Task: structure prediction
Amino acid sequence: MSDLAIPVARTGLLIVDLQNDFLHPDGAYGRAGQGAPEIAALPERLKPLADLLRAKGGYVVSTQFTLVPAKGGEPLISPHLKQLRPFLGKGDFQPGAWGHQLVDTLQPADLSVEKIAYSAFYMTRLEWVLRKCGIERLIVCGIVTNGGVASTVRDAHVRDFDTTVLEDGCAAFSPAVHATAIDALRPVCRVASISDIMKEIEAA
Result:
């Protein structure tokens, strides 16, 4: 029997921040020499699951980190992010721009939501969209495990979504940081592998 108690049609693969500006060599992080092999490997690893979920009637939901352009196109950047990532500037993570988009490997997303902070639920329309589409179960993947992924998982949990985080579908800039973050999420969600979820969807 499948462990997928909630129907596939009410399941969403929630992709956190797998955008060109984070992953592509020509994106904001790539140009600054910021990256990690574990992060770069995620799109190809997740593609079979995304394709299967689409074919079975589920949703692929992309949440995309956004730097809102203000006067003159200069991005609104929080002080802590400006200190952490001083290379970010005009045009990076701008809505509608190539760098803001979900990476090609995982396109198309059924739903896309802009986000301005770590959690995809903070000051966004994500919860409203998920409820309107009847999505009850979230399978969370993306980057970084200790940032956007962890914050989004915890916020999904307190909103009573059935939440699973993919241990091999997330990554951080350090494998040790990733492992610590996954362990810290175990009390609030199920931790599973991509293979586990694919088997459950195929059997549903």
